[in-house]
Amino acid sequence: MHTMKPQDTVDFHIRWAWTKMSKAYNAEAARVGGTMPMGFTLLSIDKEGTPSTSLGPKMGMEPTSMSRILNSLEDQGYIKRVPSKDDKRKMIVKLTPKGKKYRDLTREKVIHLNEQIHNVIPGKKLKVFFEVMTDINKLLDANNIFNGKKK
Question: Within 13 Å, how many C-alpha atoms sit on residue 135's CB side?
Fold first, then answer.
């Protein structure tokens, strides 16, 4: 059996970086009474509104988690849900003025963090990083990681 140290695995480094990014985003969000998931949800809502059923898949979230966040955002006045003009059974999530303000603030924070990363890491390295992450996502999307032959 092959043993690996955690720091030798790809998922360790992704989780490690994401945990630090999440903490940084949550600390900023907490200053204005929000959370990182709230901010990212608001960023995922189009200007004209987004069907509630497409938000979870768009963000890679399970429906129950998405529903909790949407309920919280609605209770706090960041979004409103309105029936679709085309199909009254579908709900469209729209930003309220308060939600637009929070989304704009969130966008500024995301841009700031990314600018900081771009200032420190050369473009060539980031290009390779994006290519590698795209390849990893394609591999995971194939959904047969553990069904193939073991090496």
Answer: 7
